[in-house]
Design brief:
alpha/beta, 5 helices, Rossmann fold, six-stranded mixed beta sheet, single chain
Length: 190
């Protein structure tokens, strides 16, 4: 047997439903805000691997610093990530050597700096005119690659490095299209 609600009771029923929803609304808003909190990311300094066999060229420290700062800025400006301070692990970071060849040492460094995600970038110089930039975003706890990509660089210049970082951030790291795939070489960092 089906019971019907008398019309006189409908306004009270609606008020009760609204009261329940109103009580639930703040917690729903809080949980969605927590879900959108920027994830702490350790943006490690861009690394340089030269297999060209050419004599060492110009000092790249400025390019490395600028490319690292640009990646840091682009990730932060997206609102998805919050860069952590690497100063507390700086000594260990310098002693670790290239992170892309340290068999996972980056995980402890990132974790100790308070990061959930690590950004590891390598510029691989093949010749004066040809290089590639590879970047991996890696989940620190799981040790698995979340996003990765590579781009060819034409010329070993500061402008080429900056363009590479911007391209990778915009089209790979921050691209949320699930059908967009841009893969780098397998992550060598452990």
């Amino acid at each position: 047997m089906t019971k019907t609600i008398p019309p006189a009771r409908l306004p009270w029923l609606l008020l009760a439903v609204v009261a329940v929803l109103t009580q639930c609304w703040p917690s729903a808003r809080a949980s969605s805000a927590e879900a959108s909190e920027p994830r702490p990311v350790a943006v490690f300094p861009v690394e340089f691997a030269d297999t060209s066999g050419e004599p060492p060229g110009a000092d790249r420290s400025g390019r490395i610093e600028d490319a690292t700062a640009e990646l840091d800025r682009l990730l932060e400006d997206s609102g998805k990530y919050r860069a952590v301070d690497l100063a507390p692990v700086q000594g260990r970071l310098q002693a670790a050597g290239p992170l892309h060849r340290c068999d996972g040492c980056w995980q402890g460094l990132a974790r100790d700096a308070g990061a959930e995600v690590a950004a590891i970038t390598v510029v691989h110089k093949i010749s004066t005119l040809v290089a590639s930039m590879h970047v991996w975003l890696v989940d620190v706890a799981a040790g698995r690659v979340v996003r990765d990509g590579a781009v060819s660089l034409r010329g070993d210049t500061a402008e080429a490095w900056q363009r590479g970082v911007r391209y990778l951030a915009r089209n790979v790291l921050l691209n949320e299209d699930p059908d967009h795939v841009s893969r780098s070489s397998p992550f060598p960092g452990g």
